[in-house]
Design goal:
The protein has strands spanning 15-16, 23-24, 35-36, 39-40. The chain has a domain at 17-48. The termini are far apart. A hairpin with a 6-residue loop joins strand 1 (15-16) and strand 2. It is mainly beta. The chain has a two-stranded antiparallel sheet with strand order 1-2. A two-stranded antiparallel ribbon has the order 3-4. It is elongated and about 50 Å long.
């Protein structure tokens, strides 16, 4: 009975970034562009 609830667990939902439209976890900095709540928090270098 205790282990029956483990199959109900879900993966975290993803949102789309309003700056770059990349998927990211809500309430976190976007890993693609570095924006959070319309402000740039971290600078992200382009991978080439």
């Amino acid at each position: 009975m205790r282990r029956a609830y483990n199959s109900v667990l879900k993966l975290p939902q993803l949102s789309t970034c309003p700056q770059c439209a990349a998927p990211y976890i809500p309430h976190r900095v976007c890993p693609a562009c570095g924006f959070y709540k319309g402000r740039q928090v971290i600078s992200v270098t382009a991978k080439a």
